[in-house]
Amino acid sequence: MQWLAIVLTAIFTVAKLIGVIKWSWWLVLLPAWGYLILYVVMVVVAVIITAIKYH
């Protein structure tokens, strides 16, 4: 899934820079932010499960 976020971010960034799309930058970078947020949520859930299991 990481490759999809990287590819989409790259495509949207290039399209924004050459003027094909007129989106705001937060929307252009949304795939990267979405992947980062998903990763952070997974780490937090893993820490919580580990803390409950070994408590």
Topology:
Layout: H1 2-17, H2 25-28, H3 30-53
Describe the structure.
The chain is mainly alpha-helical and 55 residues long. It contains three helices and no strands. Helix 1 packs antiparallel against helix 3.
Provide key terms for this protein.
mainly alpha, 0% strand
Proportion of residues in β-strands: under 5%
Low-confidence stretches: none
Q: What average pLDDT do the residues reach?
A: 95
Extended strand count: 0
Oligomeric nature of the chains: single chain
How far apart, in Å, are the first and last alpha carbons?
A: 33 Å
For the largest beta-sheet, the strand count, sense and barrel status come to: none
Helix content: over 70%
Radius of gyration: 16 Å
Number of helices: 3
What does the overall shape look like? rod-shaped
Order of helices and strands: HHH
Structural class: mainly alpha
Write a compact overview of the structure shown:
The protein has 55 residues and is an all-alpha fold. 80% of the residues lie in helices and 0% in strands.
